[in-house]
Amino acid sequence: MLDNDKIDAIRRLSEANLDFIEFFRVLALRQRNQKETDVDVLVKGTNENIGPEYERRRLVRIFFKELEKVGIGTLRIGRRGKPTRFIWKTGMLEVVRTVGTDEGGSNTIENLQSDEESKPRILAHRYNLRENYVVNIDLPVNLTEIEAERLSAFIKSLPLKNNLKEKHNEL
């Protein structure tokens, strides 16, 4: 059973970091309580809009460290082939329900799920521009031809004409 201090602390965590709400949303999809949650499983279930997998993994660890400070459970770093995981002292679903409803009784996680569905999915792209230079760009999965042409025109406008002429003359 959660006391009021823990409930308040959990709600403050979810309000302070929008990424944490995404983690609570993923946990809310569970039908049964879990005694422990594997960090990698939670990372794979999260929305790619948060960032690349390594960034989501880092944020999930921070999320669980914050829950550990509240006294909800313990983050165990994986050793000897065991995965990094969070061991729940309090029922996981009880914690999720704490965030899932506001004081007025409306389900904030369901509201967030409908908001997430309206956001575009993002794909991270890497392009080797030069031997020692990689360009990273995040684009929506459903990028249209018109958007691609606009982006292309923008990139074509970036080089300085004088620098190009100087480089060309040196060759």
Can you tell me about this structure?
The protein has 171 residues and is α+β, with helices and mostly antiparallel strands. It has 8 helices and 5 strands; from the N terminus they run ααβααββααββαα. The strands form 2 sheets. It has a 3-stranded antiparallel beta sheet. Strand 2 and strand 3 form a beta hairpin. 18% of the residues are buried.
- The number of helices is 8
Strand order of the largest sheet: 1-3-2
| Mean pLDDT across every amino acid position | 78
**Which regions contain 5 or more consecutive residues with pLDDT less than 50?**
101-107, 112-116
Principal-axis shape? elongated
Order of helices and strands: HHEHHEEHHEEHH
- Name the beta content range: 15-25%
Number of strands: 5
Please describe the biggest sheet, giving its number of strands, its sense, and whether it closes into a barrel.
3 strands, antiparallel
Overall structural class, as computed from helix and strand content, comes to: alpha+beta
Q: Share of helix among residues?
A: 40-55%
Distance between the ends: 74 Å
State Rg.
22 Å
Q: Oligomerization state of this entry?
A: single chain
SSE layout:
Layout: H1 4-16, H2 18-28, E1 36-38, H3 39-45, H4 53-70, E2 73-76, E3 85-88, H5 92-100, H6 108-118, E4 122-130, E5 133-140, H7 145-156, H8 161-170
Antiparallel strand pairs: 1-3, 2-3, 4-5
Main attributes of the structure:
171 residues, elongated
Short description:
By secondary structure, the protein is of the alpha+beta class. It is 53% helix and 16% strand.
